[in-house]
Amino acid sequence: MFSLQTEVQLDVLKYLNFNQLFSVKQTNSYFCSLINKYEGELARMEFFRLEILDENEEIDFKYKLIEPKSVVFEFTLNDQLMKKWQTAIDESIPLFLSESDIKPLVCIETSVVDNNYVLKLPKIPKNIEEMIITRCWLGQLFNFAFTYCNFNTIVFNREMINILIYNDKTIQPKFHIKIPNLSPTKETFENMLDLIYYQLASSRILIINFTYCEYNIEQYTDILFNILINEGNKFPQIRLRCFKLTRLYDLIIEYITTTRDCSKMITYIDLSFIAFPNFKINERAENIKVWESNVFNEKFTRFEIANIYDPRVRFAFNIQVDKRWKSSRVHTIYYIFKQQ
Predict the structure, then answer these.
(1) Which DSSP state fits 220?
(2) Which of 189, 282, 289, 316 is spaced 20 to 30 Å from 132 by Cα?
(3) Strand-strand pairing, 298-306 and 286-293
(4) From CA 305, how far away is CA 286, in angstroms rounded?
(5) At residue 337, what are phi and psi to the nearest 5 degrees?
(6) Based on the domain organization, do 133 and 229 belong to the same domain?
(7) Boundary (domain end) residue, out of 194, 219, 234
(8) Strand pairing category for 145-152 and 155-156
(9) Mind listing the pLDDT tens digit for each residue in 113-166?
């Protein structure tokens, strides 16, 4: 192994899981240094869920409290960073954002029952010591991998994260989450967007629940549409939970039909909570199939919309109609490519 080039050693290490990498690190200082240097490219320690809760509310699971000061970190603070941090302290820039007064708790859940952890970081760091502790724990969170996350009304403040890791090339400030579940409020919506664009690495599916800001969701339609047509490489699937996004549906239809390049578009879109009181199938619909379920008194419709420039590029639509309430819901829109 020592005789191999660094690139080859790195390729071998990529086949190891986190526990195996940890064992290799214990063998000697060379491998410890090598793994630490390239840890962003290697397997990460995996947890089940990341969540930000409010200490003021009841927590319905058992957990172990992590005291931030209980871990010793090696960190060098230069004069430039000291000055930047002190300014943030003086201006009381928060680490967490919410529409109400909160006592944030960062919850790290494992797949083992009653083996969960809670990290209590300051909402607003008040001194340099708290800044150092917060910065080092954020570095740990960025190095972990999570299956799920729930950010419900509380979110990390990107401004403070950028201050904490200013000019630090050793940290990539992105959360590695397979299925992020976000529930923005009116006050945190823009910060949730920052999270989507800048603080999330590639995910399997992105879920956004608009329950807390549905009354003014129309003003964000264009922003959501931009995510749908440009973030497909980062989020292959997306699920939007909201009843008031009918204009977004119309924009999707128009884009699929008229675009010359949909290579960046998210290829699987779930709009299962968008309701249409008088739904009509688009005039360009092809391969229409309709069937009914007498058990649930529902009717289902599937059809395809083809691109006018390349008819092989098309999306399939699945529509559910509740005959009792005479309303329709778009369940899924997904990309298909047909060879001709």
Answers:
(1) G
(2) 189
(3) antiparallel
(4) 6
(5) -125, 120
(6) no
(7) 194
(8) unpaired
(9) 667 888 999 999 999 999 999 998 898 899 888 999 999 889 999 999 999 998
Where in the sequence is the domain holding 208, given as residue range(s)? 204-340
**Residue (of 89, 93, 121) closest to 107 by Cα position:** 121
Residue 273 sits in the same domain as residue 251:
yes
Give the residue carrying structure tokens 């009304």.
153
Q: What is the pLDDT of residues 164-212, one digit of tens each?
A: 998 887 788 899 999 999 999 888 888 899 999 999 998 999 999 988 8
177 and 212 in a single domain? The answer is: no
Tell me the C-alpha distance between 206 and 66, whole Å: 29
Residue pair 204/237 in contact (Cβ under 8 Å)? The answer is yes
What CATH number is attached to the domain comprising 301? 3.30.160
- Residue 263 domain-assigned (yes or no): yes
Q: CA gyration radius for the chain?
A: 24
Q: Find out whether 23 and 31 touch, Cβ atoms under 8 Å.
A: no
Structure token pair of residue 127: 């001194």
Q: Smallest Cα–Cα separation from 194: which of 204, 203, 184?
A: 184
Helix (H, G, I), strand (E, B) or coil at 136: helix
For tokens 């699971």, name the residue: 61
Question: In this structure, how many other beta carbons lie within 10 angstroms of the beta carbon of residue 320?
Answer: 18
Residue carrying the six token digits 């990498």: 21
| Final residue in a domain of this structure, among 161, 194, 227 | 194
pTM exceeds 0.85 for this model: no
Establish if 170 belongs to a structural domain: yes
pLDDT at 64: 82
What are 24's two structure tokens? 């290799």
